[in-house]
């Protein structure tokens, strides 16, 4: 499956690891005082504590890559597979050429040697998504399918639908290869009692099925999307561990956008899609940002809103310039040039009025929570915030817990990232 990676071919330098630890310490307080010898254990604890927390994992990505390479050199496969699984959440955001593929392939080989089927399936699934995103569709499909089949054999297939960050890849892979029913229907048709432990898995399956059938069977798509939103809502509170922070909100907004399209609500669809794109730039990979813009532009085109379609394709081109080229950007460019450049719309439609950032949250922040968030953004510690507001530190912590819950965050870093994406701090 992996082709083999020579241990000597992977660059590793303990001095690099030491430098990355030193760089990380001011950014991640818990890294202060960690020695090079303690780095592997710290890296494993870090990725498992912040599993799926994209801003936090991304902050430490270079340190984690250094640990991964050093663990590979030392033949510590247990560390390799666990750190690679953590990096999988940000694979589509790593800018160093080849870094993401290298991390995933090292993790795959380590998982094979350890006989760790669930992590092997997950890493194959993620590598398949990465290959597909960069235009290597046939190879990506094979890896994605290998991951799915391995997970089905081990009885962990639902786990592959839980990383909500891959929902855009999976929907496009299945549309291209026309095998959606084989993978989606067993989950989508599961009884409510059977699905109780896997709300995220069913939610993603239902969304993708609705995305494929929306134009042909709008009533069925409507029901699937409503059920998807209901299942996603069950992931709050104690069940939040099955939903990656931030990515759950991106996915929720995407489902809401698709539901508005099925209803014929153009303004609502545009509002939710725009909010999903802004959050995806913080919590998702390049392909997901591009795919959301592409779908939004195509929807505008089909609705005869050609000015809006042009604007969204232009935004997609800007994203391509910021993030690096992807084949889906090229698809958008070709469509723009052949269908929109020379076409003048019969009428110009003003852009829809978008709701405020607060209306895109499942539950808006209270005035005091908003005030606490602004003070956090200003760099104040809990004790300083308590003094400023004349309350106890316990009260400040309680407000922050509510803020984290509403913004789907697990740390100050990811809460601030979500708040800025939603323009709550403007």
Describe the SSE topology:
Blueprint (H helix, E strand, L loop, with lengths): L13 H11 L14 H11 L4 H6 L1 H13 L3 H11 L11 H16 L2 H17 L3 H18 L12 H11 L2 H9 L10 H15 L4 H16 L13 H17 L2 H18 L2 H17 L3 H18 L3 H14 L26 H11 L4 H8 L3 H15 L4 H10 L5
Report on this model:
By secondary structure, this protein is mainly alpha-helical. Among the domains are: 1-159, Alpha Horseshoe (Serine Threonine Protein Phosphatase 5, Tetratricopeptide repeat), CATH 1.25.40; 363-421, Winged helix-like DNA-binding domain superfamily/Winged helix DNA-binding domain (Arc Repressor Mutant, subunit A, Orthogonal Bundle). The chain is built from 21 helices and no strands. The protein has helices at 14-24, 39-49, 54-59, 61-73, 77-87, 99-114, 117-133, 137-154, 167-177, 180-188, 199-213, 218-233, 247-263, 266-283, 286-302, 306-323, 327-340, 367-377, 382-389, 393-407, 412-421. Helix 6 runs antiparallel to helix 7 (117-133) and helix 13 (247-263) packs antiparallel against helix 14. The longest helix is centred in the middle third of the chain and has 18 residues, at 137-154. The chain is globular and about 60 Å long. The N and C termini lie far apart (48 Å).
């Amino acid at each position: 499956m992996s082709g083999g990676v020579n241990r000597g071919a992977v660059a590793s330098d303990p001095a690099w690891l030491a430098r990355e630890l030193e760089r990380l310490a001011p950014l991640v307080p818990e890294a202060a005082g960690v020695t090079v010898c303690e780095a592997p254990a710290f890296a494993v604890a870090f990725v498992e504590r912040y599993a799926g927390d994209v801003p936090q994992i991304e902050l430490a990505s270079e340190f984690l890559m250094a640990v991964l390479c050093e663990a590979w050199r030392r033949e510590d496969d247990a560390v390799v597979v666990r750190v690679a699984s953590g990096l999988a959440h940000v694979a589509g955001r790593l800018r160093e050429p080849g870094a993401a593929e290298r991390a995933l392939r090292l993790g795959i080989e380590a998982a094979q040697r350890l006989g760790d089927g669930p992590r092997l399936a997950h890493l194959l699934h993620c590598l398949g998504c990465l290959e597909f995103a960069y235009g290597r569709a046939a190879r990506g499909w094979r890896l994605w399918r290998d991951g799915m089949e391995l997970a089905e054999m081990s009885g962990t297939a639902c786990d592959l639908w839980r990383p909500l960050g891959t929902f855009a890849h999976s929907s496009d892979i299945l549309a291209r290869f026309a095998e959606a029913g084989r993978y989606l229907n067993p989950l989508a048709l599961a009884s409510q009692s059977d699905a109780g432990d896997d709300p995220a898995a069913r939610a993603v399956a239902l969304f993708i099925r609705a995305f494929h059938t929306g134009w042909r069977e709008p009533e069925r798509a409507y029901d699937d999307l409503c059920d998807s939103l209901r299942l996603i809502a069950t992931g709050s509170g104690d069940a939040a561990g099955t939903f990656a922070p931030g990515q759950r909100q991106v996915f929720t907004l995407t489902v809401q956008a698709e539901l508005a399209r099925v209803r014929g609500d153009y303004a609502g669809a545009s509002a939710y899609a725009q909010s999903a794109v802004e959050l995806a730039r913080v919590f998702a990979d390049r392909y997901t940002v591009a795919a959301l813009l592409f779908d939004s532009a195509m929807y505008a085109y089909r609705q005869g809103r050609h000015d809006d379609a042009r604007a969204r394709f232009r935004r997609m081109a800007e994203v391509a310039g910021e993030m690096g080229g992807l084949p889906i950007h090229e698809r958008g460019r070709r469509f723009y040039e052949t269908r929109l450049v020379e076409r003048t719309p019969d009428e110009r439609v003003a852009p829809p009025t978008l709701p405020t950032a607060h209306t895109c949250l499942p539950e808006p922040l209270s005035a005091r929570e908003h005030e606490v968030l602004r003070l956090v953004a200003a760099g104040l510690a809990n004790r300083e915030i308590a003094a400023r507001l004349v309350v106890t530190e316990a009260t400040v912590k309680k407000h922050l817990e509510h803020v984290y819950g509403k913004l789907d965050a697990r740390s100050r870093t990811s809460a601030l990232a979500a708040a800025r994406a939603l323009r709550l701090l403007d």
